[in-house]
Amino acid sequence: MGMTYFKRYRMEFDLRDWHADTPSVPSGYELLSYNPGLIRDHALAKFNSFRQELDANVFPCLSRRDGCLHLMREISSRADFVPEATWLIRYRHSDPRSGAVQTLAVGTIQGLSTEGWGAIQNIGIDPAHRGKGLGSILMSMAATGFRSTGLERMHLEVTTENTGAVRLYERLGFKRAHVVYKAADVASVKA
Fold first, then answer.
1. Domains of the chain with CATH codes
2. Quick check: pTM over 0.85?
């Protein structure tokens, strides 16, 4: 184990410029507002989204199912938790052999209200379901949720090496505001 510092961007968005359109969810997917009964689904979506990603090194709890469940319970129990900015995407499909319908949790986002800002805690899409606009849909729903509670700004942090996420946030209108460093004790890190 060794201490490694991960470079991250704090990215900000002015919600006063937000013009919400109701997002169109692709066929087979369903968008669900926060419900305490869905915490395990949020945790599973978080685990499947992050377990093989760089952020599992930055935040080791993301590499374990129990860590994701603990994190989701912690976030949702905070006094500054914003249920209106917390969403889940599930995918329903039929098994071609058995015909049984399976439902998989494939995307999640959570929001907090800190110091007058809407703070995105985690946004994750299962790698098998990326490239379908699901991240944009979750960001849109979180922004609408923050606005509905009176917040005028939102922010998130993203590891700079996560170029796909950085591009998504910039395309949505986020601006890089600061560079921050997150210390993590990791066994090995990709160079």
1. 2-186 (3.40.630.30)
2. yes
Contact between residue 42 and residue 88 where contact means Cβ atoms under 8 Å apart: yes
Residue type, 68: C
- Model confidence at 189, in pLDDT bands (50, 70, 90)? very low
Tokens linked to 39: 């915490």
Interhelix angle 134-148/163-172, nearest 10 degrees:
50
Q: Are 28 and 93 in contact (CB under 8 A)?
A: yes
Please, are residues 154 and 141 in contact by the beta-carbon 8 Å criterion? no
Question: What residue type is 78 in one-letter code?
Answer: R
| C-alpha distances out from residue 16 to 148, 151, 152, 154, Å | 12, 9, 6, 10
Q: Do residues 8 and 182 make contact, with C-beta atoms less than 8 angstroms apart?
A: yes
Pairing of β 153-159 and β 117-125: parallel
Residue 8 to residues 5, 69, 181, Cα–Cα distance (Å): 9, 24, 6
3-state secondary structure (DSSP) of residue 168: helix
Please report, for residues 4, 36, 120, 129, the alpha-carbon distance to residue 46 in angstroms, rounded to integers and kept in the order given.
23, 16, 13, 13
Number of residues written out for the chain: 191
Partners of 111 in the β-ladder? 120
Q: 139-165, pLDDT tens digit by residue?
A: 999 999 999 999 999 999 998 888 988
